[in-house]
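Schema walkthrough. Field components (list of strings):
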Amino acid sequence: MASTTSIDTPPPPRAPQAEPPSASTSTGRAGDKIFSGLSKGSGILLLVIMASIAGFLAYRAAIAISKDEGNFLTTFDWNPSASPPVFGIAVLLFGTVVSSIIAMVIAVPIAVGIALFISHYAPRRLAAPVAYVVDLLAAVPSIIYGIWGALVLVPYLDGLNSWLDQYFAWTYIFDQTQPGVARNMLTVGILLAIMILPIVTSVSREVFLQVPRMNEEAALALGATRWEVIRLSVLPFGRSGVISASMLGLGRALGETMAVATVLSPNYLISLHLLDPGGGTFAQNIAAKFDEADEFGRDALIASGLVLFVLTLLVNGAARLIIARRKEYSGANA
Amino acid sequence: MAKRIDVSGLTAYYGSHRAIDDISMTVEPRSVTAFIGPSGCGKSTFLRTLNRMHEVTPGGRVEGKVLLDDENLYGANVDPVAVRRTVGMVFQRPNPFPTMSIFDNVAAGLRLNGKVRKSELAEVVEKSLKGANLWNEVKDRLNKPGSGLSGGQQQRLCIARAIAVEPDVLLMDEPCSALDPISTLAIEDLIGELKERFTIVIVTHNMQQAARVSDRTAFFNLAAVGQPGKLIEIDETERIFANPSVQATEDYISGRFG
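Field assembly_structure (string):
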């Protein structure tokens, strides 16, 4: 009987026994200490992981770059196994940046449009299913996008390419100078745009839904139409959110591997003619070369990975700067 | 141009819930009319039917007529957006556009109406800020964000924004309830000045405020929670506070309920 009662009413008898050991050092109770320890530990763990990745990349990259006979930044070719080894990231950097820019240019306006439709235009019956379908896009594995891109998108885009080449060759970027199927930077950019659409859309949508009611009513009461409410209240409030959403998407576009590797027919040429076949990106090059590479070849690939790592850091830093500069205007009184 | 408001048989719903029932009243131009009554009696809802803001709430719906001089705001061919350009509104909590400068806040309504010439805007912005007794405090920082002002200043900024478009009517929904007594006094003085030019309707929870600023007072009440709010009586403010004709009004004013 005594044991059952103590189980039935555990807090009063146990509390005084449990407290002295935990309170002996400093603040509060056991729960507080465990939780603060856990969160502190998680924070430190994150820093350790980041530092060890950066250290690993820098160490292996230094080995490779010190033996590189070409200029690592400006060389087009990738021949780490030649003697002497000559390799450089010029093409990869160019291809990564260009394909990501194309993806952003296509995806961000569409994503903002979809997000506004879901948050401000669509009737509720329609908004939820549309939002769900967009989120579903994010659940498709990237290799599936790659296969779909190679089997469906590429043949379809052949037609678009010749049309663009025929009527928009004067823009230079749509002037196709090399024959070939649409396994080019434009196709990669379009595919990446589809892949980053869900993340940009869903983050933007969340931000647009958080616009305080009173901000929108301020515009409405002045006689703003729906579009003017969006322009006066919703977009200014959501601007920094859309920027961070875009940067999340850009981060994914920069690092996307399998889909690009499946669609692109890589070569080591730099061309602003977006319809010309070929080009390459960091992640695609690493995926394509890693298996066949020897020890030194892998070091060389890791060196290119370090550049991608730094590039992503710079992009995130730039995004934070933009957001911080807008802080004074960020709706602090909302 | 101040206009007369003539409401007849106005009923407003939230979905199937009837929030206010069969309200009729007349509001004279160039006067201040105060709405008082216990929480939930529908006075704010009624105010929002006067510039067709009620219907932007999901499920919001209105029956009846609101005549502005002789034009029915709920007529078949009336665009609610156009109504809101002639009936200005000031809200309970100051809501300047947080990303905009003080100047742009006041100019926002003018720009919506298609006025974009800088010199013209500057003139109206100055006039409106002076009209809202805010000019001297902000004239040196018109390019700073409006959200950097104090609460009372923000509310006067919102009033400047509302009067910049020269509305026929100015609606105020508890404009002082989020402000300290000094800012409240500043707004009340301002209301006294603005009634020379506008028809003003103000909802307030503060009966002293209603007594101080208004020419006429309308008392709203509801039979029980969940029942629609009704207009009990509307009369000269002095009469309402000294000698109301309905017992419920006297009970409310003397603090016996509400």
